[in-house]
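lol ok so funny story. i was supposed to be doing the assay writeup but got distracted and ended up predicting the structure for this chain instead. priorities right. anyway since i did it might as well share w the group, maybe its usefull for someone
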Amino acid sequence: MEIKKRKEEPLNILLRKNKGTVFLTIKIGNAQIGGSIVQFTDEDEPFEKGKIKKLPLGKFNTLNNRTINVITNVLDSNSATNKIIVRHQFHYEEEEVEVITIEDEVLNHNDILSITTTYQFKQQA
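and the output, tada:
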């Protein structure tokens, strides 16, 4: 079993004022399995880890100019394909903010893909 590491370029997530709480949902596709660690860069401990579904990150006034690191580890458990798809969905209760789709492939069945991403929250103009 090999571990393939991938680091994405930092991205800005543009937020609008008065839209309420911002949530994060991480979906792992192609019948693969995995989990994530979400951590604000200004905190010592992870904010959340494991399966991330509708995780409340905070409201605009608490998120503006803050940064999170997300590490997602995916085990290639689907013997039919070595392709991996991970979607990081930032959303309000009823409206999407940003969806980031990461596609990759591991060499062998049962290999692991470890993806590190950094997101900075910014006020939308």
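The CA atoms of residues 73 and 114 lie 4 Å apart. Strands lie at 3-7, 11-15, 21-28, 33-40, 48-50, 55-59, 67-75, 83-91, 96-105, 112-123.
back to the writeup now i swear
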